Amino acid sequence: MPQTSFEDDYRCAAQRHHKDAVYLHDDSRLPNADHHYGFAVECALKSMMLRYGGASMAPKRVNGNPPNKPWIGSDKKDLGHLPNLWHDLPLHIHGRSGGKLHRILTTSDPFSTWDVADRYRDDTTVTATTVAERKNASVDMLTLEQEASLAGRIP
Fold it and tell me: Cα dihedral angle (89, 93, 99, 100), rounded to 10 degrees?
């Protein structure tokens, strides 16, 4: 079995979550579609940051264990989950390539109320409008991730 990189794993996971979200969304299963749109965006952002944004999956300490999530910066801050990830990334890409991503992350906020724990809640936690907005954000992030792969930098 060929070994894949963390970057490839996050890219693959982003695409898989997005496809599952669209399938569920088309079947009006909004809460689970919403859940997968969030993970698709999170994985696409982490893939871009690992490839071109200075994030790393290297051990944080000499002879330390590999981390279970990407980290970035001299303080080796973990790239966490949505919605915080959406707000944290502009600080790391400001002033570099990544103007298009920076603009999206700073002018919209479709995941401000998204919470991974929503998967435990009833079917009334999300609306069709909210899921449609998050679908658009997921499409935007997967498109940016593909553009980054072609350009060799975050657009």
Answer: -30
